[in-house]
Write a structure and sequence with these properties.
single chain; alpha+beta; Arc Repressor Mutant, subunit A; four-stranded antiparallel beta sheet; three-stranded antiparallel beta sheet; 36% helix; 20% strand; globular
Length: 136
């Protein structure tokens, strides 16, 4: 639960229990799913799966865009390794031990080269956080 989960079920469980818990999560107040998220000069439009920097559409690779989306949706909060891996590699049977670090590195380079006013910071031993930064 500390890595971003809202709830969990212990196996075995009834499908009706799962559906009931899903409806309860959807009823919780929070950010509207279709509302774009802005941090610095970066904007994520969840409904269209687009990222823009200073109004220009990005050409981020799918994996890095998923990573950025996971970080932006938890704005201001540290995202644990398990949370990020479950968002990025949920359907992948075999991932290398450093797959997340490779994706983080690619995202950092992209953001820096695109002059984004955000950065991905490492919180040692815990995970990663996306924060606004000052350039210059």
């Amino acid at each position: 639960l500390d890595d971003g989960a809202d709830d969990y079920l212990v196996k075995p469980f009834q499908l009706s229990e799962l559906m009931s818990r899903c409806r309860a999560v959807l009823r919780r107040p929070g950010r509207m799913a279709l509302e774009p998220i802005r941090i610095g000069n970066l904007q994520l439009d969840i409904s269209s799966h687009t990222v823009t920097i200073d109004g220009a559409k990005s050409d981020l690779a799918r994996r890095e865009q998923q990573l950025l989306s996971a970080l932006m949706q938890r704005e201001g909060k540290v995202c644990g390794r398990a949370y990020l891996e479950s968002n990025l590699y949920a359907n992948s049977a075999d991932i290398s031990p450093n797959a997340l670090e490779v994706s983080i590195s690619r995202l950092r380079h992209y953001l820096q080269n695109a002059n984004a006013s955000v950065e991905v910071r490492t919180v040692r031993g815990i995970g990663y956080i996306l924060t606004a930064c000052e350039h210059g």
